[in-house]
Design goal:
By secondary structure, this protein is α+β, with helices and mostly antiparallel strands. The protein has a single domain, classed as Vaccinia Virus protein VP39 (Rossmann fold), CATH 3.40.50. Helices cover about 40% and strands about 25% of the residues. A four-stranded mixed beta sheet has the order 1-2-4-3. Helix 3 crosses helix 9. Bound molecules: S-adenosylmethionine (SAM). The site of S-adenosylmethionine has 10 residues, from loops.
Amino acid sequence: MLGAAAAHARPGLSFVHGDIATWTSVADHDLVLAAASLQWVPDHPGVLARWAGALRPGGQLAVQVPANAHMPAHTVAAELAETEPFLSAFGPDGPPPDPVLCNVLEPEQYSQLVHQLGFERQHVRLVVYPHVLPTSRHVVDWVRGTMLTRFEQRLPPELFRVFVAEYEVALLDVIGRHSPHFFPFRRILLWGRFP
Ligand SMILES: C[S@@+](CC[C@H](N)C(=O)[O-])C[C@H]1O[C@@H](n2cnc3c(N)ncnc32)[C@H](O)[C@@H]1O
């Protein structure tokens, strides 16, 4: 993504590599925006406090996180990871936990955090995006580059291929085999502006 973004760099617009979990600055930013990334890191009260610390007076915080850990696309993968041969392959630490389940807070918790951080105005919303996919099988493609990557990182390539194949069958048994397939996707949008 950074490679592709580099082509758009110009005076006043640059792209740098960094870790959003630790990033902050000295009250010199107008806007901190994070789209579909905060869910990857833990301790949202700490992270949002560091991001708020980067904003100058009147500055805005705008964040979007998925809130879909309860959906079959996530729960079926977590249940499959608890079965053999995958469970043994993960070793003594067990299957990797779902970052959305572990890290993402409830909308009202974000609302309280935004208030406690001193934002004068706020909107915190739970939004359902109504995606219509060509077939139910496309849900697998959707999560292949996000939710499934934690299994890819921990399994040998051949076993990961088996995991994805079994995941597809188990998922379709739960969500059905439709064409087109309606795929509701819950996200939390939070916004705040400093006085
Ligand atoms: C679903 S993508 C969203 C990208 C972009 N914000 C968008 O809306 O298209 C999530 C991105 O977060 C990045 N990411 C995950 N953990 C990160 C971290 N700790 N620090 C910086 N980026 C991270 C991933 O590399 C990935 O590019």
